[in-house]
Amino acid sequence: MEINNTFNLVSIFVKASLVTIEVAFLSIIIAFVIGLICSLAIYFKMPVLKTITYIYVEFFRNTPSLIQAYFVFYGLPKVFVKLDSFICSVIVLSLLGGAYMCEAIYSGTKAISKNQKEIAMAIGLSKFDTIRYLILPQSISISIAALNNNAIFLTKEVSTMKIILLPEIVYQAFAIISLRADLTGPIIIIMIISYLAILIPMSYGFSILERKIRFAEFGN
Amino acid sequence: MQNLGIDYIIKAFPRLLDGFIVTIKLSIVSLILSIVLGFIIGVLMTSKNKLINIVLRILLEAFRLIHPLIWLFVFFFGVPYVFNVQTDNMVVSIIVFTLWGTFEIGDLVRSYIKSLPKSQFESSAAIGLTKTQMYMYVLLPQIIIRSIPAIVNLATRLIKTTNLVFLIGVSEVLKVSQNIIQVVYYSNPNSYITFTMYFILLFVYFIICYPLSLFSKYLEKRVSAL
């Protein structure tokens, strides 16, 4: 890595930010899907799936993401296949996020009154239609704040994937500082700016989204 | 499976335990400090002074939006760069996690004080309590009880997050286990030690954190029934 001018430095960090955004985006979407499936499995009390989901959620919520990443990146290749750091980070973050998203969506589904479920049954909605028209809109509108928090949490958590050599912002900052200690100050500032440039628009956008979606709420 | 490397882990058990003690020590020290400072900050956040409010608000958002890993990094590399002093990695980690916890608890305390009915402030003024007495005898006892579940929850999160400190060279459990893995690899490159070691670590963290999070949920139910 050749660092001779400011432009070079900035372009490194722009690239790193793009990696961060990419990983965060993919893992937020996958995590949301996992969370949705898991929360429905708990909500409908599916016999075996429910237990598996419970174990999965509690396990991922109660272990450090750092060690999860190490386990997937260094531990699994011994018994399974070797994955590159990008795929590994997406896997770890989606599983971690899925556990949190499941908790959030499930607490949304709990808020739906039992009446509504019975009415849906009475007017003859199929299970899929019940999910599609009754459960999803309401539970997501109730849990949207928690979902947004989880999305921001996941984006922040991308930085810990530095340890499995994902070339994101913190990784590049570490790398450059170990080459050029005299650049420490500027690099720390650039690092913080690039994080804020990702996170502030994100949290602002989410607060708009929250206001929009909240209208869907029924009753309260 | 030829060699899971369990014998190595048993042999190195005392060292792993030492690593864990560092983790727990770090969590407990920063938890206690952040509880004390968090209550002070929380009370300050409800003050009517605009300047204090804005400064605390900015700090709160900064510690919320930016990952502790980056704060560790900023303090560990930035402080020597700006002030030309040596930083001790343990001190840096305690400072960062204390600040993080302080603002987490501070925000909670602020929201609890805001949620208390106004009549409590007025009636304590009516019976002639000073501001300090009002906080000491009326408001804080209620808030302390209400914030216990959140504090237990924070303890779980601290235990989970403090293993980041190995990145700035504190020899806690993750660092120790990496050293052990390297040694085993050197003598026996075919062993499954990485797999076993990280799996055991995950399991141990789970055993510590899961009861705590259950306890926090239980307390939450108890407190909300009050």
- For the record, give the distance between the C-alpha atoms at the N and C termini of chain A, rounded to a whole number: 57 Å
Basic shape of chain B: elongated
Helix content of chain B: over 70%
- In what range is the share of β-strand residues of chain A? under 5%
Secondary structure topology:
The complex is a heterodimer of chains A (220) and B (226).
Chain A: H1 6-43, H2 47-61, H3 65-79, H4 85-110, H5 114-122, H6 127-157, H7 169-179, H8 184-213
Helix pairs in contact in A: 1-2, 1-4, 1-6, 1-7, 1-8, 2-4, 3-4, 4-6, 6-8, 7-8
Chain B: H1 6-11, H2 13-45, H3 50-65, H4 68-83, H5 89-115, H6 118-126, H7 131-161, H8 173-187, H9 193-224
Helix pairs in contact in B: 2-5, 2-7, 2-8, 3-5, 4-5, 5-7, 6-7, 7-9, 8-9
A few lines on this structure:
With 220 residues, chain A is an all-alpha fold. Chain A is 80% helix and 0% strand. Chain A contains eight helices and no strands.
In words, what does this structure look like?
The complex is a heterodimer of chains A (220) and B (226). Chain A is built from 8 helices and no strands. By secondary structure, chain A is an all-alpha fold. The longest helix of chain A has 38 residues, at 6-43. The mean pLDDT of chain A is 88. By secondary structure, chain B is mainly α. Chain B is built from 9 helices and no strands. Chain B has helices spanning 6-11, 13-45, 50-65, 68-83, 89-115, 118-126, 131-161, 173-187, 193-224. In chain B, helix 3 crosses helix 5 (89-115). Chain B is elongated and about 75 Å long. Chain B starts with 5 loop residues before the first helix and ends with a helix. The relative contact order of chain B is 0.16. At the A-B interface, helix 2, helix 3, helix 6, helix 7 and helix 8 of A face helix 4, helix 7 and helix 9 of B.
